[in-house]
Each structure stands twice: as structure tokens, then as C-alpha cells.
Queue: 4 jobs
Job 1
Amino acid sequence: DLKKYILAIESSCDDTSAAVLCNAKVLSNVVATQEIHKQYGGVVPELASRAHQQNIVPVVHQALAKANIDKKQLSAIAFTRGPGLMGSLLVGTSFAKSLALGLDIPLIEVNHMEAHILAHFITDENGTSPSFPFLGMTISGGHTQIVKVSDHFTMEVLGETLDDAVGEAFDKSAKLMGLPYPGGPLVDKYAKLGNPYAYDFPKPKVDGLNFSFSGLKTSILYFLQRETQKNPNFVAENINDICASVQHTILEILMEKLNIAVEQTGIKEVAIGGGVAANSGIRARLKEAEDTLGWKTYIPKFEYCTDNAAMIGIVGYLKFEKGQFTDQRVAAKARYAI
Ligand code: KG4
Ligand code: ZN
């Protein structure tokens, strides 16, 4: 049988996810999001691993049921080995190892950052995949990275954040404005109604293709403190303009680096992923770059942008085809470069 059925497990941060793929096609992709972190305004690692422990079995059962696949039909188990929170990774890693051992089928380790990029190769009804070589940019609450992708397994990190991830920049700015966590989607929503040039925030000076977002957060903090001293209702009265200006600054930083990457490499195939790829502003800027600069840009379906097991499954399938299996002695790896 040429059909490979891969069960994939993702547990690197605060989403417990399981997916079943038949070759490059997703049959199911179940995600249990952990609501517990909302009240803390950010992910609490200890609580995340406990929630994974509770969620993993029901999530895997649901993924198999939705795919209408019996576990005896599975060809292999793919799992996220890293990077991520150690306690969270341990849950998925141990579960995947045990199940593979019990079913006597191969185990396949997956790097979470490679998976964000290879999510573009999931076969969907109308999706088109980038052609090699292409630039991948992963932008989320945990990551900000530009990668040159020469083929499925030849990737080179060209630049990444030196401090906060871009999603954190959105969320922390939103928090300073009193918006609930995660504030990124709300900043996007209000930004649509505001003037992106209303306020000026400094852009960081970072060499090459690396990013820095912690300075922006600090300058927004001082700006808001100064303005609310003069007018206690400043934020409420100007929320649209503040959001539009903050978002504009963040997008300028992202697009400036992408532009440099395109110029340096001569590659105009640009593939974006991660939760921040949902942002309407970045989507508009990419569209503009297609029209004015001749780029070809790609964004996967949103459920394959945020943390999900389907993207782990596509890497699992590609590795299966190459016979790249993993020994049972494998251990989770919190820091794990591409
Ligand atoms: O990929 P993701 O679900 O989780 C990880 O961080 O791995 O990304 C979540 C991040 C959050 O920071 C959230 O605020 C941000 O993506 N985000 C957005 C938007 N939708 C989600 N940021 C800006 N605009 C959006 N529309
Ligand atoms: Zn991620």
C-alpha cells in the first residue's frame, strides 16, 4: 500500500494537538487550546505541562476518530522534539515514544520551526506550495525567524529575534493599552479604524536580518505613561490610532527585513507562517509586494499557521519517504536550532 498514515503530536507550548495525515493530506487536525493561561496574561510553563498531560489522550482519540482510522492502520508516529517548553515537550515526546513502541511502528522526530515552514506543503484543495528556493518567515507568539529554504531538509536561518517575538510585541503592547491576552488580534481590529501615522515609535537598529522588539515595548510604555498623565482617558479616546501606529511600526520592521532578505538572496518566493500571519496588515503588505516588487507570497490556511499537529505530520510524511526514523532513546530538546 502506497498510502502512509501518520499520527502527529504537537505539545511544544500551550496547545495540545494531534493530527492524522494520509501522505501529504490532512485527515484530521485536533487542537486543545489551554484557556488557563489567559488569567495570567501569558503562558505559565508548569500549568501548560499539566494541561498537556490531561489533554493528550482525548486529543489523540479525537484525531483518530475524525480521520476514521484505527490505530492499527498507522504507519508511523511523528512528534515535536523541540524547540519549546521542556515540561510541555516531555508530555508529547513520552506519549509518542510509548505509542510507537506499543504499536511497533517507526517514530519520527520533528523540529517545530522546520514544521512551521514545511506546513506550506500540506496538500489542500486550492493551496499552492512555494517552489525552491524560497524564503520562509515564521512570525508568532514564540518565534520570529527568516529562513532560506533550498529544499525540504536544507534550511538556513538568515535572521531571528534577539529578544521578544513579534507576537509578543503585539501582545505586550496590547496589555499596556489594557486589552486582554492575547491582544494581537484586537490590535489588528482597532488598527483598521485608525491612522497608522498618528504617533511615531522608533524602529530598533539591528544589523543584518535579526530582529529586536523589546525596545518598542518600552517606548510604547513611556509614551502611554506620558500621555495618560496629561489626559487620563488618552488610551480609550485614541485606541484606534494607537493600535494603527503600533501595528504600522511592527510591520515596517518585518517588511524592511524581508526586503533585505529578498535583495540579498535574489529570491522572490516568500512564504509566511505562524499566528501573526493572520494579521490583516501583513497580508496587505505582502499583496502590495506582489504587485509592486514581483514577489510571490504564500500563507497557509490559518489552522496550519498557529501551533498545530498537521504541520508536524507533513514533516513526518516527508521524513518517512526518506527513511529518516528516530531511535527510541530520543529525548526532548528545549533549544533546538533548525
Ligand atoms: O502561532 P501562535 O498561535 O502561537 C505561538 O506563539 O506559537 O501565535 C499566537 C500569536 C499571539 O501573539 C497573537 O497575538 C498573534 O499570534 N496573533 C496576531 C493576530 N492573530 C494572532 N497578531 C496580530 N494580528 C493578528 N490578527
Ligand atoms: Zn510555533
Note: Residues 112, 116, 140, 142-143, 307 surround zinc ion (ligand 2) (CB under 6 Å).
Job 2
Amino acid sequence: MDLKNIENKWVHQFAKPIIIAGPCSAESESQMLETARRIKESGADVPIFRAGIWKPRTKPNGFEGVGVIGLNWLKKVKEEYGFRTATEVANAHHVEAALAADVDILWIGARSTVNPFTVQEIAEALNGTQKPVFVKNPVNPDLALWIGALERLLSQNVQNLGVIHRGFSTYRKTKYRNIPNWQIALDFRQEFPNIPMLVDPSHICGNRTGLAGVAQEAFNVGYEGMIIETHCNPDEAWSDASQQITPEVLADIISNLQIRNSDI
Ligand code: PEP
Ligand code: MN
């Protein structure tokens, strides 16, 4: 089995587009449950709830995530509202804790994808898991590093894979927080057409106004879904406040998207 002919049966469990929504960070049980309840009540077709428990922050001494207690809140979100759950893992301890708490989907963040030692450690901790694992593009525009991370997972018999396009760091001031560099994602897609690709408009844009446009651009070229930061009170969010939206705005964005059927 190689990345080109991977089967990725997991993807058929979900209607397309596959939408993952929820806060950048888990902050409290009530924040998690209110966000989940309002996503449900909004009527948006969101099967998967995201929240960061361990947060990679650019500077030290800020909020670095609530840690393992957040896994209990994800569990409650699953029990009370029926969402599958997703969180970021950045080392083997995170993987062990997330698997023990039965988080349904794990992702490797953009700052981890750049580090082969980290990816290898995560891949070994995940060995043989059937759970879907997503790999965000590395912060720098390096396609080989992105592919290499997937190869490390596959060689640990992790076969339910997906990728997340979250844009690339830039020193220049642009309208994006992370420039999309669409061509890199399209090159990835052309090489590995069986690996589902999700867009992360939140981290590409870094603001609320650009989200719908970036998501639409991705769906225009056949992406399978998106992961989008959604918070019950975005202005007060403890991380990435400027890009988070309410569940009601999310529902509105989703209902205005034009979705093209893809082949996966
Ligand atoms: C996140 O999804 O909240 C996150 C930290 O993303 P990234 O790894 O893309 O910066
Ligand atoms: Mn974030």
C-alpha cells in the first residue's frame, strides 16, 4: 500500500462536504457545550466537533491549552450532541491521552508537520490506529515535508488519512494570515487524489470576512471539506479570537457555499 492507492474507507462514513467545526481552543466545559448545542440548533450539517486541548502558541507565557481535562469535555460533547470529536496531537503523550479518551479524529498541526522527529514520534504512538488522522500542511511551503509526514504515518500502518490546507507563513503583510499558495495544495491533490483534502479558512484568513470566499475557492476545485473555528462567544475567545465565528454565522456560510461533487 502506498499513498497513491490508499483506500481511505473512512471518508464514506460522512456526507460531503465533511465539515469540522468548533473552537480553536477548549476553554471550559460550558464554552464547549454551548458551542456544540448552538451548532446543532443552527441546523448546519456538521458531523465533527473540533477543539484544541494542547495549543502551540507563538509566544510563551500565554494560554497553552487546558490539557487533559479538555478531553472530558470533548467526551461530553460526543455524548450529549452526538458529534464525532477531533483534536490536535503534538507528541506521543498527547496521542496516548487522546486515544485513551476515545477522541475520534486526530490531527497533526502545522508546526509539528515541519519536524520529522515529532511526526515520527506521533506516528509510532498511533501505530495501527483505524482512526482518521489529518496532517496539516507545514507552516513553510514545503510539499515534500507534507508528503513525508503522511509517509511516516502510513509506514506505521495508519491508513485512514486526510490533509488540511491551512496556508503558509509569510513575513509580508497580506490580506491573509497564512497565504493559501493554492498551487501547492493542488500539486498535492494531483499526486495523491485518494487523500481527502480539507480547507482551513480560519487559519488562512486570520479574520472573519475572508472565510466564505476562501472556503468557496477550495470547493470550486473539489476539496472534500473544511475545518472552521466556531465559538459561542468569538470576541472573548482565548486564542484566535479575530477569526472565530458564531455557530449561527457558520450555518449561514455553509448554506451559501456552492459545492461541486468530487470523485473521492
Ligand atoms: C489550530 O487548528 O487551532 C491550529 C493551531 O492550527 P495550525 O496548526 O494550522 O496553526
Ligand atoms: Mn486556531
Note: The CA atoms of residues 33 and 80 lie 8 Å apart.
Job 3
Amino acid sequence: MRITDARKEWLLAALDAFQDRILVVSPTYEILATSGRGLERREKDVVGKRCYEAMNDRSVPCENCPLHEVLRTGKPTLRGDQGSPEERTACLYCYPVRSGTKIDALVLMDFDVPVLAGLEEKLRRSNAFLRNLILSALDGVIAADKTGKILIFNDAAAEICGYTVDEALNRLDIRDIYPGEDARQVMEKLRSEDYGGAGKLKSYQVNLLGKNGDTIPISLNAAIIYEDRREVATIGFFRDLRETLRMKEALEKTQIQLLQSEKMASLGKLAAGVAHQLNNPLGGITLFTKLVMEEYDIEDKAREDLQRILKDAERCRDTVKELLEFARQTRQEMRPHDVNQALSRTLFLLENQAIFQNIEIEKDLAPALPPVPADIQQLNHMFMNIILNAVEAMEGRGSLRLRTALSREHDQVIIEISDTGPGIPEDVVPRIFEPFFTTKEEGKGTGLGLSLVYGIVEDHGGHITAESKVGEGTTFIIELPLTRQEMGGPDDGA
Ligand code: ADP
Ligand code: MG
């Protein structure tokens, strides 16, 4: 193979430009030529010398020199072991230069292309694996460097915060995802000893600021990442607490609701007691008024007044009777009840209150409704709550319509209670059955009425919906099944 002068020049220039060290030695370790990293200046000093003497300051050949293996096998060789630190030489890779089968010279290099490529590949793969591990973690993972620039933002973090991963990596600063001073506080706590050790923060509850401005409560585990004892970044693993807190809140509300129903029960007892006490004097008033009218000869005018007293006393007695019925203290007792009668009873108790004065009441009750298995006290409470809401919504003026109907097809009784009030905005309707949801001013509404109603309807295996149009009014529709679906199989003794 002939090399032209021009090509020779180029090859030499290329070798010179090469940064890594190349030695060309004879099979007896004699340096024939060198190139790379400042060696050209020393070339005249080293050429002709033994490589182990000139390069490694040794009196005998290096034990782990790849040259031995090349001489033995005739093949390019990579030095296997690195040797002890004292023995660590720069000669990593060696290949023969030959004419025919004879090895004329050997080239020793201090770098190794195949190994570097392999290491890079290994590194790339383990990096990709770690990246994958973080990105697919179920917890949110965010890492940021010391300036606040976000380095890692995984899918879970994106889902919790509402930012896309791209947005976060390119546009966000770590301070953007904490409201107010929280980012600074997290850093302070991280550096303090008191929250799981310096450089660590364990199960710390803090808020994040979502993209849409929501504050998102999270539980954060964070750590400072050090390199050579220098702080280079922070990493946080966190979990969205919204669902957990919602559940906790719901539980607390249920407890309060329970308390409230206890209170209602004791109010019922009180009402029953008062009603009993009123019963006797009322009986007396009625009886003696009648006696006076029968036994004395009195003027017509006075008789008229007595008549009036009698009528009012009777009305009182009826009220007391209804109240007793209403507040009757029983355990939940499912018996067949006439829904029309229950509605009328509740209305009877309410309709003479001042708030009903300018309310027109329309009744459209289906005749001969079959009785519905129900707890009468609960049924009364249910109607009372819905009717009071309707009348309160109308603010004393409008019309209240009570309608009942039988649906043979579905084996149920349908009760509709409508008002001509202001209606409920569409986005509010889904919330009205929530405990404590009220739009009434403090002290006026508890927000418990409809949640109680909802519970009662469920207890009866029924269904309740609200239909409303703003400006026109609201209708509550209750469906109560005529037959109770019993749970459990036929052997179920209960
Ligand atoms: P409260 O009456 O104490 O506010 P409720 O649970 O009885 O609690 O009712 C919840 C909310 O539902 C009320 O605050 C009101 O906004 C709405 N609401 C209920 N019934 C009606 C109705 N007939 N018309 C308009 N809004 C109603
Ligand atoms: Mg109410």
C-alpha cells in the first residue's frame, strides 16, 4: 500500500491534532514515535528509550501492559484490569502494526474507543432507568437547582399541579408553585435539624399553588442534594391530600349531623311534654265554656264571644294533637301510612304561621292512594323541611303546590312540592343536599334540612330530585316505593 506525500501530510496533521496520547513502540518496548498532549515537544527526549522507563519511570516493563497480550495473540487488546493505583498507567489499548505475520511495531493508546462507547451506553441506560423510575412514580416528584430552576417534574406532579411537564421545565420557577412565602419556608425547614434532620424534611404538610390558582394541600418529603458537601439541588416527593382532607371533613360533618339529630330528638320530647301539659287545661276551657253556654241565660253578643272561645280552644286542641302525633317518640318504625294524610297534617301545623299568610296553597292529592311503608315521624320531618324551604324561598308571597300521584307501573307514590320562588341556579342544585350547604345568612339556615330529607328518602328506599328554573320556582319530586325491598335471602330470620 503506497501512501502519497499529500495523504501522509494529512495523516500526520490529523495525528498531531489528536488530543490523546499515542505511542508507537517496537516489540521490545523501544519508543519509535509519539503524538498527542504536549508529547511532541518531548519527542526527541523519549524516542529510542524504553516506554516503561520514559513514560512510567520503571526499570522493568509494566505488568499489566496490553502489549504482552498483543504479542501473544496478534490481536488488538484492551487492558483488562486497572492495576493498583501505583501501577495505573496510561496505556489502555494496544494494536499491532505488521508486515505479513510479523509484528513490526505496536501502538499504545491512553484511551479506548470501544470501552468508552460501552460505558457511555451503560451510563445512558442506567440514567434512562432512573429517569423512568422518577417520571413514572405515583407520587409527585419535583427537583430544582439552587436558583429555583425546575430540573425534574414528573407526570404525577403535572397531574396534581395542572401544569404540563413542558411548561414546568421551561417556564416555571420553584417559587411559582408555592403560594406566598411557602417556598422559602420549605427551604428553611429543610436546612433545620427539627424536621427529620438537616437536609431532610419528612411528611411535612404544605400547600402548592395549582396552575388555575387553587391551593392544593400536600404531604411533602424533601431532601437537599449535595455534591462534595455543596448544596446543588433539592428534590421533593409529595402526595395530594385533597381527597383525604375531604373525607376527614365529611366525617366531621356527619358527626355534627348526628349531634343535630340528637338535638332534634330531644326537641321532639320537649314538644311532646308541653303538648301533654296543654291538653288538660284546654279540655277544661272547652268544657267550662260549653257549661256556661248551656246553663246560663246569656245575651247573644256574649254567646257569640263564647262560641269564639270554644272554636279557638278546639283549634288549640287539634294543634296539640297534631304536635303530639308529629313529635311522637318512637324508634324508626316502618308501617303503612297514608302520604296524603301526612302531608295535610304537616301543612296543618304550619299554615297558620305568619310566614304563610300570603301564600296560596294548592292541593292536588290523588284519591285512594295505597299506603306507603314509612316511619311517620320521618315522613313528617321530610315534608316539614321541604315546605318550610319553599315558603322561605318565596319570602311570604307566592303559591305552594302539593301534588301526589300513584305510579302503578313503578309501584311507587310520587310526591311533588312546588313553589313559585326565585329558583335555584343550575350550578347550585347539585349541592343543596349536602350537609351544611346553605345560601341563607348566618343564623337563618343550618344547611341541614335537605341533607336530613335526603337521608330519610334513602331510608325509605326512595328517590328525591329537585327541578328548578331561576325566576320561576322549584319543584322537589319524591318517589317512595309501595313495597319494601327486604334485604337478605328467604332464610334470613330477621
Ligand atoms: P337551609 O334551609 O338551612 O339553608 P337546606 O338544606 O334546607 O338548608 O337547604 C339548602 C339550600 O337549598 C338553601 O339554603 C337554599 O339555597 C336551597 N333551597 C332549598 N329549597 C329551596 C327552594 N324551594 N327554593 C330555592 N332554594 C332552595
Ligand atoms: Mg331548610
Note: The pocket of adenosine-5'-diphosphate (ligand 1) is lined by residues 385, 389-390, 393, 419, 421, 424, 432, 437-440, 445-451, 474 (CB under 6 Å).
Job 4
Amino acid sequence: MVHDIRLGMCNTLNPVLLRASSLRARWHAYCISFETAYSRGFMNHPSADDTQIQATLSRIKKRYIILSGKGGVGKSTVAVNLALSLAGRGLRTGLLDTDLHGPSIPIMLGLVGYVGTAEKEKFLPAVLKDGKLKIMSMQFFLQGRDDSVIWRGPLKHGVISQFIACTLWGDLDYLIIDSPPGTGDEPLSAVQIAKPHGAIIVTTPQAVATLDVRKSIDFCRKLALPITGIIENMSGFVCPHCGGRTDIFSSHGGEDMALELGEHFLGRIPLDANIVPLADNGKTAVDAMPDSIAAKSFSAIAELL
Ligand code: ADP
């Protein structure tokens, strides 16, 4: 049984995360199984309370959640590049990775080895861009890159609430929240807790992907979450050798859907062969190839937020 750990504002900081962070110990597989967390009484006090959440939200001017109906459409890529574009303009930006089972933000930002820590009552985020960009992710608390998080329901809600309320964000101009695809636990908790000002929906142009995105739109409408707009990613490939354009994933599907559903179209990002190797090596389009069409498209969209 884990005892309540009373700590200033966030007086029920997730004891499993806290132990991992304050002792700088890494988790073992058994620490992150749902059953173990349940048997240790962790389920009884998993969430930050409303006062903590309100206090944190009152210090964040604008909050956006990135959604997609499908995995692999570039949601995390968009989240990272938008956050970097905002931070690059000197805006204080937070990037919260609520993909608890498949966090990829740390890999994309070269933060794989970063170990989550807590100081007094708060989790310390990773910090980049001279303090302008603060990042929090479940990956920071895992022992190894391949460790899985075997959680469901209330545990996930609790950790997301604590990542929002008990991370030392300070005053932020923007909080960008990346979420796993679909309309399940993580986006639902993030929306209910962080009360975003808007949702940014990412799709690829082909019909199969846009079909799933319609569900994300429906999700926003049912939760009364304003839709900031739709981004069409991987939209056309310009061959670096011959200059010819190929619409590998069809074209204009995201824009057509936005038009049809009366939603705002934020812009399109081309399929750029450099983005995958960059991301795999902890680099981003916005930082590593600022003159590319992709980087300029990310920056132009960030200007709209
Ligand atoms: P999601 O978060 O939707 O699962 P990711 O952002 O992880 O998607 O992207 C999936 C893969 O596609 C990654 O390898 C990423 O580097 C790559 N990718 C994303 N956007 C582009 C793009 N515009 N051009 C080329 N590769 C991209």
C-alpha cells in the first residue's frame, strides 16, 4: 500500500511517478502495471484536484489539443513543429505529450535519455530553447525506451491531470497538447481537464484517413470543444531529384472535408523525405531545415494560433 504523500499544492502527487522521479530511480515493469497500481492503493487518489488544475490553467493563456482519427498521420510531428515555431518567436510554450502508451515527442526532440524528476510539489519539465519550450511526457518516467505502460481508465486520467496541474509550467503563452489517435481515454481526459481553447485536427489527404477524422470532429462537437481548424499533412511529394510532384496520399482530402463540414482549413504540409530521418535523430523541420516548404508551412500555421 502506498501512503498518501502530502506535498504543498499538489498534495497527492502520483506516488508511483513521484518515487520514480524524486529518487531519480527508473521504473521497473511491475511498477507500471495497472494491477500493481491498483493493489497498492494508487487508484484511490490519482487525480490532481480542481483547485490545483484551475491555478495552473489560469497561468496558461492559450491551450490547443492536437487530434487525429488515425495514427501515423503526423500528429506528433505537427505538435512538435508548432510548439517549436511558437517558442522560436519568443513565446513561452509548453508541450504536453498525453500519449501514455506510445510517447514519441521525446524521440523527436532528442530527449530520449531525459529522466523525469520532481522538486517539492512539482514535476520538472524538460526545457529547450532557452527556457521558452517546456516538455512533459510519460517517456521521462520509463526505465527504457521499450517499456510499456499497461494502464487503463482512471490511472490514465490521474496521470494526465497531474501532468497538467503538477508540472512546473510557470506562466505560458501556449500549451500544445499532443494526444494519441482516436476518441478514447487520453484525449477525453485532456479535454475535460485542460479545457483547450481549440482543437487542431491533423489528417492525411486520402479518403480512408479523412473518414476517421470525421470522428474527431464529431468528438469535438459533442464535447463543445471549438475546432480551430484542420491540417492536411503529407500533402503531395515533390521529388528532390526531378522536381516532379506526386500526390502519394491523394490530394486535397483534408481541405475538401473542412469545406464540406464548415470547418476552418489551417493549411497543408508536404510529404518531405527529410522529415523521417530528422525525427528519428531528434531533429525537427522547423529547426533543421527552416527554409523548407514544410518548415515554412508549420510556421505559417503557428502564426494563426
Ligand atoms: P502520429 O503522431 O499521427 O502517429 P507521427 O507524427 O509520429 O504521427 O508521424 C508518423 C511518421 O511520419 C513519423 O516517422 C514522422 O517522421 C513521419 N512524418 C510526419 N509528417 C511527415 C511529413 N510531412 N513528411 C514526411 N514524413 C512525415
Note: Residues 65 and 177 are 5 Å apart (CA to CA).
